[in-house]
Fold this protein.
Amino acid sequence: MHLGFHYHTPAILDQGFIRLPGYLGRFLDSLAFRCQSVTCFLHSPLPYEEDLLDYRMRSKNVFLVNIGPHESLPKRLLRTRRVSQEVRVHIRDLDLFLIRGPSPLLPTIANTVGNLPISLLLVGDNLVGVDDLKQPPWRKELIRLYWRLNKSQQTTVARRALTFVNSRNLYNEFKPLVPHLVEIRTTTLSQVDFFERRDACTSPPYRLLFIGRIDRAKGLLDIVNALALLVEQGEDVHLDFVGWPQYGDTILADINALAHSLQIADRFHYHGFQPLGPELFDFYKSADIFITASQKSEGFPRTIWEAMAHSLPVVATRVGSIPDLIEDAAELVPPRQPEALTVGIIRLLHNPTLRQKRMAAGLKLARQNTLEIQTEKMMTIMYQWLENHAD
């Protein structure tokens, strides 16, 4: 299969190698292993994004087509004609076009490819996070209107496409609308990434860990408040944050200000962005409990699989697809409640039987959701789709 691929992610050609974010690079390498070629239509990075391109593609059959800078959404939409031209040049060489969404250019690319078979991989709903944006109300409403239009166009494409979704919520939403719908797991895990241990939380100080995008919707202020409550109750705990803030957002400054006001600044440690691989995985290996406190979610955080693969007990909020996939493998608590996070953490800290049960269940689940397993499932279904489409 000669596969086309698009997502609104930047990538760059560096000394003959494609560099891009690790979560996407691992996925594309896994696809390329099962394809004759993968042609990626991606944006060029802005200067501040280049350090986030932490993965160098290993596959030699992956090719990069630059569709313009990863600028603001309005500027990207003004360049749709150029994007269409770039796609048309390569259409005759492709068997199938896979578009990850939601993405601003999903409708443009889907319309450009014409009769070429299309597959979508939908990993969220951008309407969910609009209320959490730090924008004036009028601007939020404009953003909401745009994403409603984009979602309507996306649904129109999905009706004629082979559509993968990575959450039960999305599956239930699209099931009445999309005839060819498959639930899949998105992950960065390979079979060689696993780290087994019998227990965590064996001695203080205990290290709590969050890894991911430094974003208000991730409930990071709730996690800091929970840290303060734990210290107030006499627990010897520290909190490590690993990730990258949204450009121009003040969330990191707000987190630091909150930690200082609660007099726990010496227990909060921000480590910045870490590349996917050994540097990142060392944080999982040295932690005692992984915390994710998303306030709203449509997809499933890949960092949960990573934590479970490193034998970390998990405390997570009961949002999106999280309870559907890991009900018995983590401590699940209501969102927006630091007190509930505290209770879940204390249960894992001081109940070794429960903790080891959660760790074992999480490790087992993670082994079922590696790139090797999930990509093979996707590719098998895409090959079958192509055969049926040809008929």
In short: The longest helix spans residues 137-160. The chain has a mean pLDDT of 94.
